[in-house]
Amino acid sequence: MNDKRDDIYAYNEKGFGHFVFDQRVVEVFPDMIKRSVPGYSTIIHMVGQIAERYAQAGSNCYDLGCSLGASTLAMRHRIQAANVRIVSVDNSADMIERCKLVIDADSHDVPVELRCEDLLQSELNNASVVVMNFTLQFIAPGKRDQLISKIYKGMRPGGVLVLSEKLKFNDDHHDQLMNELHHYFKKTNGYSDLEIAKKRSALENVLIPESLEKHKQRLAACGFKGTELWFQCFNFSSLLAFKE
Ligand SMILES: C[S@@+](CC[C@H](N)C(=O)[O-])C[C@H]1O[C@@H](n2cnc3c(N)ncnc32)[C@H](O)[C@@H]1O
């Protein structure tokens, strides 16, 4: 099935407020994320491979901020360990409703539990794999320590957290360069300068990126060992963080 094209910011409508994950976004989300996040398809593919390697028998695998379940399906299709359950959480009812259709249309037999919940309230336990793909950036910065700490406590020894985030850079010149390269990536994917500018303004104070150093420092402070940057393209990254 062809993804419906994202043209949310293509028209000269007034009254765009803050970006929200509502029905309008749900309709175009697969196209939006692929044309906006460099390396998105690679990251999703690798999430499957990482889950295959790290999922432990009798454990839970989490997809936190699951949207339409791309990481959920990637994990579901690769996990070999016995008695694994995937728990996929998102606080957008529109996302979860559509995600349910996606999961129901998939015939694989690893059980998936969908939860429409705020990650800050959601319970997490017995986890061997936790995926948070471009979601921590939408959590209020003051709540991020508490969320990462909860994830760490809910994980089994030998477990892995996949944390994908848009990055900001401490060096202003470098930060601007990465933003320009990302802007060009979106342009070459068919977004106009106006669309890019409107989306950026809608995401202001909604998507709040942090530096790689800040993520590593927080992960270490919460107990994770051996954090590794395994993917980066411009200002988009993915980290692996291990629980010993
Ligand atoms: C960029 S999308 C994630 C994309 C998805 N992980 C993927 O790889 O396709 C961010 C998602 O996080 C969800 N989200 C944001 N804040 C949340 C919160 N506090 N609790 C649960 N979900 C949240 C949004 O509804 C949205 O679906």
Can you put this structure into words, describing what you see?
Helix content is 41%, strand content 21%. It has 244 residues and is an alpha/beta fold. It has a 7-stranded mixed sheet, with helices on both faces. Helix 5 (141-153) links the parallel strand 4 and strand 5. The chain is globular and about 50 Å long. The model has no long low-confidence stretch (mean pLDDT 95). The structure holds S-adenosylmethionine (SAM). Residues 21, 33, 65-67, 70-71, 89-92, 95, 118-120, 133-135, 138-139 line the site of S-adenosylmethionine.
Which labels suit this protein?
single chain; 244 residues; alpha/beta; seven-stranded mixed sheet; 41% helix; globular
Bound molecules: S-adenosylmethionine
Number of continuous helical runs: 8
The Rg value, from CA coordinates, equals 18 Å
Query: What oligomerization state is this entry in?
Result: single chain
Most strands sheet: 7 strands, mixed
The number of E-state strands comes to 7
Helix-residue proportion:
40-55%
Mean pLDDT: 95
Q: Per the principal axes of the C-alpha atoms, what is the gross shape? A: globular
Q: What structural class is derived from the secondary structure elements?
A: alpha/beta
Q: Strand-and-helix sequence, N→C?
A: HHEHEHEEHEHHHEE
Distance between the termini: 42 Å
The percentage of residues in β strands lies in: 15-25%
- Model regions low in confidence, pLDDT < 50 over at least 5 residues: none
Strand order of the largest sheet: 3-2-1-4-5-7-6
